[in-house]
Amino acid sequence: xxxHLNRTPETSRIxxxxxxxxxxxxxxxxxxxxxxxxxxxxxxDLLNDAFTRGSNACITIGxxxxxxxxxxxxxxxxxxxxxxxxxxxxxxxxxxxSTFSGGAVLGDRIRMQEHNTDPGVFIRSLASRxxxxxxxxxxxxxxxLYKAFAFxxxxxxxxxxxxxxxxxxxxxxxxxxxxxxxYGDNIQMAKAGIMEIADIFVINKSDRPGADLLTNQVLNxxxxxxxxxxxxxxxxxxxxxxxxKNLIEAITLIRNRTAPHWEEKYRQRISEEIRSSVFSHLNRxxxxxxxxxxxxxxxxxxxxxxASKRILPMIGTS
Length: 318
Ligand SMILES: Nc1nc2c(ncn2[C@@H]2O[C@H](COP(=O)(O)OP(=O)(O)OP(=O)(O)O)[C@@H](O)[C@H]2O)c(=O)[nH]1
Ligand SMILES: [Mg+2]
Description:
Blueprint: H1 2-22, H2 26-37, H3 43-53, E1 59-65, H4 71-84, E2 89-95, H5 106-111, E3 121-127, H6 137-149, E4 153-159, H7 164-171, E5 174-179, H8 185-190, H9 194-197, E6 200-203, H10 211-222, E7 233-235, H11 244-258, H12 262-298, H13 304-314
Parallel strand pairs: 1-4, 1-5, 2-3, 2-4, 5-6, 6-7
Helix pairs in contact: 1-2, 1-3, 2-6, 3-6, 4-11, 12-13
The structure holds guanosine-5'-triphosphate and magnesium ion.
């Protein structure tokens, strides 16, 4: 009975937040992100509602590249362009250094601060605390919420180190990979998976020496693909606003090109989401029993293999 009484105000609070998001009040989005980040009560109700109502009309774009390649500067310039044509923009910046509570990283805040007072732009940094085998849950769930808020354009900035850059490609419509001249070009190019995920290559800092060389290297690589699958290569100077229109055209091109395969990609995305959700539940459950099993192994009464077999039947019972 007590539990029932406790749940009532909670449910109405979640309903209120859902209502705020529906009426496109930014406070609703901010509150929802906090609940999701802090694993707060009502998180699942919020996310289920967001998923059900999420708009698939919005375009989601992932920007990935090594630290300092100019992702935030480029996103800042892109936001400006989209705003000029009246599109609303939501940005999720995945910040590997951020603490659990999130909060914008100083660099991002400075580079994108011109949009702070624009009600058509919303920027949030989230911690990249890993889910087991997938994009950080915070990022994935923020995407649900942003879609429910129905921004016209949703941008995800991920740091191009580790698995996140590969994972983000599964969750966005268009993946933009940034490369810059004189930054260990071969290393950038050779990174496992980068060729597969890039829908568009941006050679940023094209004002720097070596830009032509890098452009040619990338051209040679993409030429191995059939023409209708070849990623466009766009040269930009993000801090001078150069090449941004070309980039937006390339994004539109890719979106139109991939539209016929949308359902297939959507199915893959859902499969990925279910799988990663199962893994994160499993991980939590296994953690419940881990300490006890470690002790048993340390006492030499069982081996780790036997410990795993003992844990399996306990899953779903705690
Ligand atoms: N010369 C030159 N500098 C640029 C260009 N674009 C960005 N920068 C500079 O590069 C530096 C890094 O830019 P950011 O936008 O913070 O790069 P980032 O990829 O977001 O960096 P992280 O988020 O730390 O990974 C800044 O000093 C920018 O002013 C460009 O086209 N040319
Ligand atoms: Mg950045």
